[in-house]
Amino acid sequence: MERAIVLMGCAIGAGLALIAGIGPGIGEGYAVGKALESIGRQPECKGDVTSTMLLGCAIAETTGIYGFVTGLLLIFVAPGIFMGLL
Amino acid sequence: MNVDITGARIYWTLPILGGIPITATIVNATLVTLAVLAACIFLTRDLKIRAVSKRQVVAEFLVETAQKFVNGNMGEKFAYYGPFVAALFASSIFGSLLSLVGMFPPTSDLSTTGAWAVMVFVLITYTKIKTGGLGGYLKGFTQPIPILTPFNVLSELATPISMAFRHFGNVVSGSVISTLVYAALAAASHAVLSWLPGALGDILGAIPILQVGIPAILSVYFDLFSSAMQAFIFCMLTTLYIANAAEE
After folding, report:
1. A4 lies in a domain?
2. Considering its fold, how many domains does chain A have in total?
3. Whole-angstrom Cα distance, residue B243 to residue B124?
4. What confidence tens digit (pLDDT) does each residue in B226-238 have?
5. What domain range includes position A26?
6. Domain membership flag for residue B99
7. For A58, which residue in chain B has the nearest alpha carbon?
8. Structurally, how many domains does chain B consist of?
9. Which residue, of A85, B192, B201, B217, has the fewest CB within 10 Å?
């Protein structure tokens, strides 16, 4: 019974951790939209804008990656630790 | 249906210092190093000043691109970081592209990206101390007001952690999603084709037909685009952080 509760908690937690993916999605979409606007206004800056935008997107992605790593830890690492504690 | 998501496998254990495990990461990272070394030796063999060969043109193009990248981001006075950044880029992209041939990519192990991030962190700290002296480096933590010192220490430590996790997470998320889609396609083709009547359904249902071709689209994004992207971003951040550290 305890094992089932531990596994259930880890699985639910992993699902909740991936909610962190919402933020980077919205943020990157906004960044790309702004980049497209500025390319439309000044097409000669396309190269600079694109490379800066990709860098910014990668940094904005960090929080989503943290959520993903937390989810991985909850699925593959945490059950072993908590089962050992029981 | 078997879904196989694991970390690096341990091939064998060296019986010294209480047993050092030799994992797939170590073996493949060594292979990547040898591949980069072989490529460098092959490209730089018998260089000439006049009547250059095609090989030398490629080598010159690569070196010039790396040097231009470093000079553009860090300025001329940091031109000696060119080989370091180029080596990081080559290891990262060769390491990530190993997944194309079905081997375990060393960059999907936190140890590899963590080691690179620690190297960059040491370089950042070295540059800061060299620029402002040890006193200036320590005083930088109490800016703008002393009460912010813990937060400054935290943000200093967050730099290598976020660099390591960003590269690691992007490569691992690609391989996890590819594995899940692969398994799901096998299940889907079994579910669809086993409805066919008689022996035909039994035979076709056992062959995962949907697995042909569709995962390749994912592979183009996760293996090719994402690998190049992450290698570029890691090098970009390295150059920007080091150049930033020299300005203070």
Report:
1. no
2. 1
3. 9
4. 888 889 889 988 9
5. 20-85
6. yes
7. B233
8. 1
9. A85
